[in-house]
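As a warm-up, study this chain.
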Amino acid sequence: SFKCCYTFMLNPQGNIITDAFVFNWGDSYIIDAEAGMVDKLLDKLKSQASNDINVSDASGSVGILTIQGPIAQDILEAWLLGEELPADVFSAVKIILPDGKDVLIINNPRTGTGGFDIIADVESGPLIVRRLFKILGALDCRLAGWQAFDIARFEAGIPRFGSDIDPSVIATETGLAEKAISSTKTDFVGFDVISRHSNPNSMNSYLRGLRLFNDIQVLPQKGDLLEYDDQVVGYITSSLASPKFHANLAFGYISKDFNKIGNILTLRSMNFESPAQIVELPFSKNFV
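Now compare it with the structure written out below.
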């Protein structure tokens, strides 16, 4: 069967080199990582691969199209008449297009609602897009750009590598370790550190969601400090003026002694200071 997983690549200190989705393509694996990490990821994999394993950049020959949202399944069912879609998250099915090319369909909700990834040869891209355009029009939907996708990801309380996750943090501090790291394997790089920090009380800080006051004039930047009683207890990683919730939201790492849900901290930016409350993730839990 074809499957997918979300994972971290770690260094020996348990820090995150990059995150990635790994797709089982049958006789090979496709890794989907942040574009800026491709060269580093290739170098790392090539240095560890045995001689009988070929590692190469497939971005010029393989493409990924993602369909996200509450009616993602309706869109795919209209396109793949009679084909059974993967029901479980990270499960996948392979189908054959009219041009004879294979396409992998993965159940992969990237924005907190239903969602699917389509992996195909780039030569099949025009055929897939033309068909989907017709379906989107019939369902009163349209293609979304990267900014809209990233806003939906943020509003779903899903952190992103490069802003909320980077090589300066240990994997267990992100809140994603259970999803991204195997609980049964012990032979991966960084295992010793991860095993020592499996208990939340052993971590120095933890990634939290924050709700900011609506009257702030400028959103905080990465690195802006969070304080409690004039003591620095954390920092902001990213922020958003949410169009869905009509609220200012942020992610930030906060010291274990001060990161209780409901705590109110002081956000200290270059130009202002303002209260910031630690809230549950996903953010939707706070806007019932």
